[in-house]
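Trying the structure run again after the queue cleared.
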Amino acid sequence: MNMQKRTNPFKMPSEDYFIYTTLLSTGQEIANKIASKTALPRATVYYRLNQMCRNGIVSFSNSDGKKYYKAVEPNAMLSKAEEEINEQLKQMRKTVLDLSKTRKIQEDNAWIETFTGKEGLKITLEQMLEQKPSEFLMYGSSGVLTYKLIPAYIKHWHEKRQKLKIPIRIIYNDTQETQISLKKAPKMGLISIRLSNIKEISNTVTIISRDAIAIMIFETATPIIITINNKALSKAYQENFEILWKNAKHTVYSPPK
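Done. Tokens:
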């Protein structure tokens, strides 16, 4: 069988994975037979088997003067991979925490950042979550822009927001597109939605948190995100939002009290 056609979920070298899957199908085998079945050079098979034994991917036993090799069960491989990933995440969290401690925030000055594209949207939204505000405020949207671009991530973002117990109030423009989107959207917790009197589709979304404002512009295929980190400006935007909220009297959804 061609090595290139086998999916390798464990990201091990292709030769190792070819040997591993061959052993799974045969149960246990000597190196010469493995070389024959895989069509790999015997020297390569011997070398790779030794490496795989050291890495805990393959075990061996001696019988009648011959060395038989056996693949470790896939479930054990999955557990091993999960442990490695968890350890990597642990190290990454520690590194991020250390880096965060070294970052100097100047509250008196406005720090402006510009991002583009889908990844820029994700980074912006993650940064706003990290601030852990008491509430998010959002307006100017027709209700579908971010969902169209990054639907899986937006769902994940709202799940994280709810776990952090951060409510969000949204003012959508009253368009047909908004109405369709709201009917299809899954029910969420800690969210209140009203419709403004604006009937036109908006290509700009503004999100306000405690210390920052993110303006997302969807005029082109690649979105542009401008984030302004400044408490005073954020407060001014919050006050403006409250005026818009009072005028948007049509409540679409409000969480149960």
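DSSP finds nine helices and eleven strands in the chain. Worth checking whether this holds up in the mutant runs.
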